Every structure is written in C-alpha cells, then in structure tokens.
Amino acid sequence: AYERRFPTCPLIPMFVASDTVNEYKSEDEAIHVIERRCKLDIDAPRLLKKIAGVDYVYFVQKNSLNRRERTLHIEAYNETFSNRVIINEHCSYTVHPDNEDWTCFEQSASLDIKSFFGFESTVEKIAMKQYTSNIKKGKEIIEYYLKQLEEEGITFVPRWTPPVACKSESSTCHPRRPVSPAINIPESATKEGLSSKEILNTSSSPSEPTAGTPDDKLDADYIKRYLGDLTPMQESCLIRLRQWLQETHKGKIPKDEHILRFLRARDFNIDKAREILCQSLTWRKQHQVDYILDTWNPPQVLQDYYAGGWHHHDKDGRPLYVLRLGQMDTKGLVRALGEEALLRYVLSINEEGLRRCEENTKVFGRPISSWTCLVDLEGLNMRHLWRPGVKALLRIIEVVEANYPETLGRLLILRAPRVFPVLWTLVSPFIDDNTRKKFLIYAGNDYQGPGGLLDYIDKEIIPDFLGGECMCEVPEGGLVPKSLYRTAEELENEDIKLWTETIYQSASVFKGAPHEVLIQIVDASSVITWDFDVCKGDIVFNIFHSKRAPQPPKKDSLGAHSITSPGGNNVQLIDKVWQLGRDYSMVESPLICKEGESVQGSHVTRWPGFYILQWKFHSMPACATTNLPRVDDVLASLQVSSHKCKVMYYTEVIGSEDFRGSMTSLESSHSGFSQLSAATTSSSQSHSSSMISR
Q: Positions of the region Disordered (predicted)?
C-alpha cells in the first residue's frame, strides 16, 4: 500500500514527481532497498521562491524493506539548499511485539536552518506547517491505498519464507554482489555472525575493494550521457568532492561536469583539485562571473575590432572558436580598452563556451566538455610583441588556466610566421603541460595537406579566409583608430568601475580606519541582512545602534572620515568623541572573519534609529607566553600589505510587514572558501558563529 504513492500521489498535491535513483534486491528477495529523488512544490510565498531562485525543491528518500524481519524503514533528507537548511526524516513500520495483526508506525524529523537569506523564521514556519499537514494525512493516505487493494481483491500478502536454494549449513544466506552499482551499502558484507539487519547495512564482498564511500555511486546512464568514461576511483573522487562542497560551500554548487574538469586538471588528486576549485569559486563570486553573459555588454570597440567568434563545431561535436590573431590590433585594443575589459571579454567567451558545451551534449547525445580553438596567425608581426600587449595576454592566460581547466579540447594554430617562435617562447611557460599537448601548429599552407584541417573540421564549415566555402562572420579586425585611445588614468578608473558593476560594493579596511555603513530603521522588528566576502586580510564585523544620526563623512579630508582608494571606499561614521555605551551600543557580538571567508547573516532590529555595520581591521594577538611573535603571526602580517584589508559586501533591509514571526537566535554562516583560509585546507566542516539578537 505504501509503495502505491509512487511515482506521484494525487492525495499529496505538493508531491509532483519522483525518479528511482538506486534499487537493490537481495537474491532471496528478503531485502528490497529503493532510493528515489522526489520533486516537491512547496507552499511558500512567491517572494521567498523568487529570492531563493527555485520553483521546486528536491528530497532524496530511501525505503528499506526487510521481509525477513517484517520492517519498512524510510529515510528522507533535502537535496535542495542542503548547505543552508538540513532536514532529516525517519519513519518505520514494524509488527507489534504482542499482536502480529497490528502494525506500529513511528515518525521523527529534525530541522536545522543555518541561514536562508534572512528568512530563517519564515522557512521554519513553512517547514513545520508542511510537516504537520503530512502527519495528519499519513494515515488517510495509507487507508486509501489499502482500500484500493481490497477493491482489486488483494486482502492478504503471504509471509516471506526463505527459498529452498538458500538453505545451507550456515544460518545466514549471503547474497552475491549485485551487478547494479546502486547498492547503497558499505564494505565487508559477509562477516560471520551478522544478522539480516546488519547485512542490509554492510557490503556484500569484503575481498573486492570498493571505489569509495557507500554514496560513491552514480547512475551508469547519467555517467555515459553527461560525464564520459569514468573509472570507479574517478567516480568516487567526483562524489566525495561534490559532497564536501555541499557540506561546506554557502553558494551555488557547480555542476558535476565543472567539478570533473578540476579533478582531471589535477589527475584526480582530491586535495589539489579542491584547492584550485575553491579558489575559482571564490573568484567567480567576487567578480560575478556567473552573471557576465546576462549583465555585461562588450564595448563597441571590441565588437568591431576583436577578430574572434564562434563558428559551428568540429568533427567531435566540440564548439569551434575562430580567432584571427594576426589580423587583430592587440596594442590598439589594450590602449583603447585596458587589460580589464579585454580580460572580461575573454571570460565572457569562456562562459559562452561552457554554455555551448552543454547544448552540444544534448544535441549529440554524448558528453562534450571542451571546445576547439582555431587560431589564424596570418599577418602576425613584431607589432604583436608589444610588451604591454604580451603582458595582458599572459595575465589572461593565467586567469583562464586557473578557472577554466580542461575546457580546451584542441588548439589548431594555422599559418604560423617566422616571428611565431619568439611569441611562443614568451607564452608557453604559462600554459599547463596537459594543455600544451593539445596544440597543433601548422606553418604556411601545411594545414591544407594530409593530417591538416580536414582531419578535425568538416569541409563544409572551413572558413572562407582559409580557402573553404563557409562564410565566417568573425570580424576581420584591423587597426583601432588612435582617436579611441584612452589615457592611463581613464583606463584605471574604467577598470575599477568594470569590476564593481555589481550589487556588491567594495571597501578597503585599514588599521585604525574601519569601514562603516549606515542603515536607518523606522519600524522596529525590521530585518537587516548582509552578505560579504573577505577578499584580503582578517576583519572583525560589528553592528552598533545609535538614537542619533552620525555626522556625514567629510569627503574633503583624507584623515578624518572618508578615504577613496583603487581597491574600494573607506567610510568612517562613528565620531572619535563618541563613547560606547553612552552615544551608541553594540547589538551583536563581534564576529572575527578570516581571509577568504564568505559570511551571511541577519539581525532583527529591536528599536528604530540608526544602525551601523562596521568592518574593522583584525590584529592577530601575539603568543601569550612570550613577547616574541609566532611564525604564523609573522607570516600572516606579511600577507596583509600595509595593514590593509578588502571586503565586498551587500546589505538589505526587509520590512516587518514582509517578515513575520519572532527570531530568537540568528546565525551568521561562514564559508572558508580560499586557499588562504586555514579552515578550508585543514577541515571539511563549515564554520559558523551564532549571533544572538538582543
């Protein structure tokens, strides 16, 4: 009767659909384990769904039926927002010990909300409402399907008995290891003396080493369709790294294909792959790279004079990018746009490449995770070796290598002139060994002969400028007019603007000069929310309240209140004559935040007035037992040049009418997501600091 509620149940409107992820049956049919991924349409306010960015939430449910012991155990946990909210549910159907005709039902659940965009209390209420509703309806649903079975003439299910073939001298029948990789059980299955209950929770072949932990199993069809050939060890590495991200990362979890690229780049060394992936995810968040295709429009100069563009695909189905480097005025582009605009354009090309890989995977029905780049060097000369241009090129290569590993499937370099070896000598040391192996270089017209372009690209799509018949819409490049050149000062200001065109603001924090943000609250019980990244140095985060408004910062005095630097603003609001406890009060305990961490949190205001969010330089305390500084302290002080820290932050106030219910404890969630954060490299646990609203 219970199984009839799947794959969907009309009596539970929020239960939209479910898919079987894993299934295991023992040979004697005593044990049947099914793991499903369930899609739910939660009854939540439209505003909350919009902020969270989801229409549905997904749960994983595992049902373990043991016919020998006559038990059904059900476990469920949330997959969606598992880094912010942890929901665990356990149910069991058992036979009453005193009356075999009675079925006992037990149910328990736990809810742990770490952080949820400042809506923790709302989420808690929604979860409790849904859970209470499910409990009330549980018995009704079972009775509905029991009645349905009776109407079909099924009123009795025979008791399970061991098959004759299983009877042997041993009291326990040991099932063979199933062919399906979906058995969700750990190692050492046939240990002597285990009960049938214990067999369910162990592996069936101790002599055969497993690839990793029990959950290190992916659906074979999914692997073949989207990831390609993986050994059991590689599959295990992928699952373990993904699980670590789900447990520690407070942002968007990258797709399996993206995680796999970083693993391949480090030969499936989990520690090394995790380090570069963490650095890349922090970088993506700081520079809002996930939104670059939607929010950034390339300047017209790039559209007119950058001689590159996407052009169909190669014979392997990889997207093909054509770059006419020899026709491009690199000096003119750098002088007209600066390094940052060029870099951002290259990043947008890479993001578009990732998107096209996903599309081609769907079109060709096989995993395509990289693209082919065709570089035409016809016209390359000493002008391209202009020192600032080469410097910009090296920086772009460095950023792309660090954040888009294993995305270049093949690089075809055509019509390489005599000056090319000079450029190659300058550039090649910055290119990864694995990437260099993918380079194919053709001088003159060699690309037209055997082993040339036709081996990799269909004749029908060879560009016209290479002797083909296909019209290529890539811009022809040409010299950038000098009238478009910008001064060094203009380019510097443009570069700062370029990387701060985001909802996040950038601020510098100096020793003795904290950065402060003023928030005026009219209605008590409003909620102040924050989200910030510590990009450089260690800081202390404070929240203060004052009944009177602080004086506005003086922009004409560098030492008094406000400092403007290329790295971000520095504003000080709390006057030096103000006294803590008299003129203003602390409403949250100070929070120490390490370099590389992301912090999200919220505070329910108790009084109207003026709230000040403060980021202050954190000085490491010296060793208490000696006046000599520790080695760690010295190294840390060297990392923070000129006693300067940098944060990128976003704050928002939610009105009391949009945030109902009391919140007694609030949490500021940390994500130590940088190689510079000792917490990340030494522990896989996420760090959090509880902040109590007074």
A: 191-216
